[in-house]
Amino acid sequence: MVIFPGDLTANAIIFDFDGVIVDTEPIHYKAFQKLLEPMGLGYSWQDYVDIYMGFDDRDAFIEAFSAKGKTISSSVLNNLISKKADFFQKTIQEGITAYPGATNLIKNLHHKHVPLAISSGALRSDIMPILKQLSISDCFEIIITADDVTKSKPDPECYRIAFERLRNSNQLSAISQNSTIAIEDTPAGIEAAINAGLKVVAITNSYPRDNIMKANKIIDSLEELLGFNIL
Question: Could you tell me the pLDDT band of residue 181, with boundaries at 50, 70 and 90?
Fold first, then answer.
């Protein structure tokens, strides 16, 4: 069992990716606008924060079209997702910096054999190169991405799958929903984790405290969790 500062306990941890481990949201926003603005479907950064952040690419493109009263065919949608992924890949090759405390926390928990997972609305092809850059790709037993689900957050599907697979891979450990913490940064992610029955630690990387009050604990940095103990 992990005992974090403030006596919050857990037997397993599920991390969101964007906004928790790394700040790639500006890159995602830029990629969306590069494709949508020529089509007259662009939107502001504030709209991205208020509406689109937390969506996977599929739902984000569908919403952008719907907001302007347009529909999108499967072929156009898949083409846009592919082009957006290509732009993202080229950008992250320039290097990505993790949030303070993120890699140390993940490596320390992994070293103590705490079961770890990722549950993200990003594509697997977006996530894996960054984890490799940060030398933490081997720290996670389970990685659930947009490729693995049919609905994006706030639907709890991603967290339900991550929890079930994490529990199944640690059958000798006492992993329950109540003993599993999700670390999130968005209201949609928090709602998804809560509806999956998990405890939630919210970090103020993307939203102010007033927007993430439903979490069990709110922190300003993952560095606040580094002083954990193992029971």
Answer: very high
Q: 173 pLDDT exceeds 80? A: no
**3-state SS class at 140:** coil
pLDDT of residue 25: 87
C-alpha 193/C-alpha 46 separation (Å) is: 24
Q: Which residues pair with 199 in a beta bridge?
A: 181
Query: Domain spanning 2-23+97-230: which CATH class is it, in words?
Result: alpha beta
**In the chain, at which residue ranges do the beta strands (DSSP E only) sit?**
2-4, 8-10, 12-15, 116-119, 142-144, 180-184, 199-203, 217-219, 229-230
> How much is the average pLDDT of 18-39?
93
Domain boundaries, the chain: 2-23+97-230, 25-92
pTM: 0.84
Q: How far apart are CA 18 and CA 36, in angstroms?
A: 21
Q: What is the fold of 25-92?
A: DNA polymerase; domain 1 (1.10.150)
N-term to C-term CA, the chain:
5
DSSP letter at 230 equals E
